[in-house]
Amino acid sequence: MSALQSTALELAAAGLPALPLRGGKVPFGNCPGCAKNACGGRPNMKTPGPCACPAPCHGWAAATTDPGVIGSPAWVRAWREAAGVAYHPGGAGLTVVDLDNAEAIAWARASLPATRTVQTTRGEHWLYRGTTPSANAVRSGVDIKSSMQYARWLGPGNGSMAVLPDAVRALTVKDPSPARRAPQTLSVPLEAVRGECPHRTPTYLDRGIAMAEQRITDAREAVHATVYRTFLAVLSTHGRCGCLTETHAARLFTAAQAKGESLRHCTDAWTNALTTLGLAHV
């Protein structure tokens, strides 16, 4: 057994989903059977099925805590060629603030609560308990690695791990916010199909949006399907009278992105719901 495979098994036993990295510190590429998602892919890139490929395919989504997979023949072959070990922070309920230079480290020390720190070749990883959407270059020399992302394993680090602060979550929200920017098609298709307004008071609509946000937030599996069904329910109830605004849609997009959904997934789900209900602009 290679040292890297042994490290991966230790991480898996500690609840950190692990995967091998090849030269260049990147995951192994998909095998021919999985190229261009010919295998059907992995739903939301969050679960191991339906793809049954035994190799460490699909980038960060290959990360696993299953020792049987880590020690399988296909993975053993990968470990022989591997140059390092990575883990999926979001899969372990963690966020890594990747600080690439001295300026970024100085900013973190002045702006963020102290937490467990891991030395890297160029800077530091600051580890927090809690997850958030991942984002690169949130400021100079700073990347956020959590949901749908991997981080290199460079050791356990030093210090106690703090709870993920709002200051880090705020870094993943661009200005202007993608969640506000995405549903730009709202104004035309929804206002063009005005019907009888069911909102006797603004509270009715606000309560509906709040319930939809909570439904998305509470999803523990099939997140993408839950997001689509929630969008569909909101639009079927509130989408025909013109009261639904971009601000309401932005709240739903933000809730979905907090669960790891990409902007593209949110936009596609919203558009598909509009089309299903006959609200899409022709």
Structurally, the number of domains stands at 3
Total number of beta strands = 10
Helix content, binned percent: 25-40%
In what range is the share of β-strand residues? 5-15%
Q: How would you sum up the global shape?
A: globular
What structural class is derived from the secondary structure elements? alpha+beta
Instruction: Count every helix, treating DSSP H or I runs of 4 or more residues as helices.
Output: 11
Average pLDDT rating: 82
Taking Cα atoms only, what radius of gyration do you get, to the nearest Å?
21 Å
- Identify low-pLDDT runs: 175-195
| Largest sheet: number of strands, sense, barrel closure | 6 strands, mixed
Q: Give the terminus-to-terminus CA distance.
A: 60 Å
Q: Tell me the series of helices and strands, N- to C-terminal.
A: HEEHHEEHEEEEEEHHHHHHH
Task: Tell me briefly what this model is.
This protein is α+β, with helices and mostly antiparallel strands and 282 residues long. The chain has helices at 3-13, 67-70, 73-81, 102-111, 166-171, 178-181, 187-191, 202-217, 223-238, 246-258, 263-276; strands at residues 18-22, 26-27, 84-87, 94-99, 116-119, 124-129, 135-139, 142-145, 151-152, 162-163.
Can you walk through the features of this model?
By secondary structure, this protein is of the alpha+beta class. It folds into 3 domains: 84 residues, no CATH class; 82 residues, no CATH class; 99 residues, no CATH class. 38% of the residues lie in helices and 14% in strands. The protein has 11 helices and 10 strands. Strands 4, 5, 6, 7, 8 and 10 form a 6-stranded mixed sheet that branches. The chain has a 4-stranded antiparallel sheet with strand order 2-1-3-9. Helix 8 packs antiparallel against helix 9, helix 8 runs parallel beside helix 10 and helix 9 crosses helix 11. It is globular. It starts with a helix and ends in a 6-residue tail after the last helix.
